[in-house]
Amino acid sequence: MKLSEANRPLRVLDKLMQGGLGAGNIGVVMSRHGTGKMAVLTSIALDHAIHERNVLCVFLDRSVDEVRAYHDEILAEIIDLIDVNERNGIYARAERHKQIYTYKSGGFSVKRLTDTLAMLANHAEFKPAMVEIHGWPDFQQVEVQEIAALQRAAKEYSTEIWLSAHTHLEDHKDRRGLPDYIARLESNFAVLLLLEPQGEVVNIRCIKSHDAPPPQGIHLEFDPKTQLIRWR
Amino acid sequence: MELTTLRNIGISAHIDSGKTTLTERILFYTNRIHAMHEVKGKDGVGATMDSMDLERERGITIQSASTHTEWLDHQINIIDTPGHVDFTIEVERSLRVLDGAILVLCGVAGVQSQSLTVDRQMRRYNVPRLAFVNKCDRVGANPARVTEQLREKLRLNAVMMQIPIGLEQDFRGIVDLVSMKALYFTGEFGEDVSADEIPEDLRIEAETRREALVDALSQHSDELLEAALEDRVTEELIHAAARKAVLSLEFCPVFIGSAYKNKGVQPLLDGVVRYLPCPIDVENFAVDPTDEEKKIAVTHKPGDPTLAYAFKLEDGPFGQLTYIRLYQGKIVKGDTLVNARTGKRQKIGRLVRMHANKMEDITEADSGDIVAMFGIDCASGDTFRSEECDLTLTSMHVPEPVVHLAIHPSDRKAADNMSKALQRFSKEDPTFRVRLDPKSNETIISGMGELHLEVYVERMKREYKAEVTVGAPRVAFREHITREIEFDYTHKKQTGGAGQYGRISGTLAPSADGQFHFVNAVTGGNVPKEFISSVEKGFRSMIGEGMFIGAPVDGIVVTLSDGASHAVDSSDMAFQAAARGAFREYYLQGKPQALEPVMDLSVEGPTEYQGPMVGTILQRRGILVGTTEDAGFVRIDAEVPLAEMFGYATTLRSATQGKAEFSMEFRRYAAAPKSVEEQLIFQYRERKLREQSGK
Q1: Residue A125: inside a domain, yes or no?
Q2: Which of A93, B230, B591, B679 is 20 to 30 Å from the Cα of B501, by its Cα?
């Protein structure tokens, strides 16, 4: 198949988000432990990188080697899907347009992020279209001001920022399935995606899609076997 | 000799972490040498293990030398391993023959980029290891932080076995967390170890750390777990659990000290004897040359046929010295052994045990041991075996060289000496290659990096008195096709005598693994079975030089699906010619691309220099891959074309006032930029034209 075909599920995801998250906005992917937050965000990030839009991948308490090996794995899955004649250069494009930053927990803050964004812009002319952050913040503890500062950073550096949130079975949720501690910050988030395991796959449900009601009738899922997003 | 009391260990580390000093101290305490020298000693003698002038001058160890010594009724063979990545083959060779290793780390700098490379190699060979945090007497030393780094950066289950008593200039001794005693090192050279009560102010820390140690080890020993629950932990239980966990590569005990100040070395030696494996604790394999897939575990029994591996050659004043590791059987002076590669029988005239530059003659050596033989003609990596045995020891992972350098001898005499030196070096080091370029009539040496080749050029001058001038280093380019193409080619010749006929069709496609693959998909016998291998041979003969930039072809899958033959005119030659013809005619339709070697580069330095560090990488067409920030330090991982990396050390130094350092390792071949590619195409055409007009 062609690359554009292999990427179709991500275009469907864009549709779910009224055309994508968009620069200056914050999106959150949430789910219980081990249900594919990292895989979904990685798919979005690699899709940007393959299409020559820069992405910054921020991880806490992981090593660069680990993240890189994981990216390579997902790239190999994508490359496997597409025609031999379309494969050339995908890997190189992805490498060129993504950057991995790892921090120790406690060593990361919005200030560190803006310092990094400034350094990359000044010294590397690297201006990310997307920033994904894994392992920060702790949604139960984080101050509203910190998230507001993150949103200012997204606007200042004209980038979209994705966060991943860990939810728990015992959380108190509203009727959309949104835990209280995320709901209290909701006004700062443009998009909220919820991953719900269902049998062998994980459904991707859009709880908030900018200011419009989430489109109905679109079914997206994540396949834990291939670590890729599928559209049905 | 009892195999259980034998230890073959390596000492691996970053330059400047004090490895040579540590080795020197180990040899001193085990009573083999009677005076101690520092690496950059004022007495100009240099430490005992570094035997070459060049190493003395640069303060680094380039060649590994093996040394035999004894501690607590145990025999220990120490392989000193080089610290620079450009000499990786040396490290890898040593790792192959080692059963365990000490990873030396600087107590101030901790885990540096080089430690990462060395650790990666140790993982590849499953080498159990102990860590020694050295230089605890230096300002800024912090063994607890280094232990943390071992856990985080190297993902080792590192746990401190000792804690320091005082640090930096107050570093006085250590607390052994197993015996719960304070150890002090007295006497002129710290040769007397005295045990005492733990100082009051360290008692709580020692108890917490010991608990952490027992906790960590309990996960590997049910006995210890039970004992811990019932509060009856003994030293023996801890030792046994630690040994088991180290052998299974699940635990890395951390020892501390200062080799320079003569502190902590003896407990480290106790650790080597206690926790590192003996030869039978490690599984080693031989292969059956008729079926390389088959792995046969070596037995280490002295009564079985002999199997020995030559891992290191040295050219000494009395001829060639060959270091070998025995894996099975024994070697007795006067025995005849067969070199598995050449089939040549050789008599072992003299067998010695080496202590750096001194040697003792021995009459026999048992399985598991490391000894040296005199006057044996072989290459490093060869297997020696008794005549009744037909196994060979697995060949090692040998990377392809990525840098070329043209060299010219300055005069006639230098030319003779140079050829002697080159012959020697290429025997010693499989990653060092020599060839004569028939087109330019230049001698080209190839290796793993700029420094790798530089060192050999230096050695030529010093050891062989061969003055040579060198060209600019060049990288080894390759080329490959980027799309799948179908071919259909007929080779037909009718010029009197027997004709030639062969027709083949199929596809040429890029392969992902950089290898040549031949797939036989012929059904119905249109290409007779006996000619299938001729077709493969024909294609294979073409990949040495592609037709795009004249470089070796990297990765191609040839699928032969159909063809035709003639009852009389088809032959091996005709089908080989058909394959060559098909390759010539169709190759360029596959949209070839020039490839260049790309290196994994790690640059490490203080966070405030992050900008300049990034700058040096981007100036060199580098791609930033990832950045790790931790406590004021930052490590930047990048992929950089090797072609841009010549002279990088100087650039980095001046950009960061010497605060940053780097290490580099070959990663993969990647598409060269158009500008480079165009130049390569141009050079290739020029060369072709010259050759044609030459004819």
Answers
A1: yes
A2: B591
Would you give the end-to-end CA distance of chain A in angstroms? 17
ipTM of the complex: 0.80
Residues forming CATH 2.40.30.10 domain(s) in chain B: 285-393
Spatial CB neighbours of B80, under 8 Å, sequence gap ≥ 6: B10, B11, B19, B20, B23, B49, B50, B61, B64, B65, B66, B67
Residue B409 CB contacts under 8 Å (≥ 6 apart), including other chains: B415, B417, B418, B466, B467, B468
Residue type, position B328, single letter: Q
* CB-CB neighbours of A127 under 10 Å: 14
Interface test with B, best of A85, A109, A111 (most B CBs within 10 A): A85
Tokens of B237: 């239980």
Domain count, chain A: 1
> What residues of chain B lie within 8 A of the CB of A100, using their CB?
625-627, 637
Query: In which domain, by residue range, is A114 found?
Result: 3-35+56-231
DSSP string of B134-198? Answer: E-TTSTT--HHHHHHHHHHTS---EEESEEEES-GGG--EEEETTTTEEEEEESTTS-EEEEEPP
The minimum CA-CA distance between A118 and chain B, rounded to whole Å, is 10
For the ranges A158-162, B37-41, B144-148, the lowest mean pLDDT is seen at: B37-41
Report the predicted TM-score, pTM, of the whole model to 2 decimal places: 0.63
CB contact under 8 Å between A63 and B631, yes or no, is: no
**Quick check: B256 and B277 in contact, CB under 8 A?**
no
Distance from CA of B681 to the nearest CA of A (A): 20
**What is the Cα–Cα distance from B131 to B11, expressed in whole angstroms?**
10
Residue B41, pLDDT score: 46
What does the pLDDT read at residue B255? 95
Cα–Cα distance, B632 to B606 (Å, whole number): 6
CATH superfamily name and code, B285-393: Translation factors (2.40.30.10)
List, as one string, the DSSP characters of A8-49. Answer: HHHHHHHHHTTS---TT-EEEEEESTTSSHHHHHHHHHHHHH
Q: In B162-201, which positions are buried (b, 16+ CB within 10 angstroms) versus exposed (e)? A: bbbbebbeebbbbbbbbeebbbbbeeeebeebeeeebeee
At residue B58, the pLDDT reads 41
Query: For residues B49 and A71, what is the distance between their CA atoms, to the nearest angstrom?
Result: 44
Identify the CATH assignment for B594-675 out of 3.90.1150.10, 3.30.70.980, 3.30.70.240, 3.40.50.10090.
Answer: 3.30.70.240
Is the separation of the CB atoms in B255 and B161 below 8 Å? yes
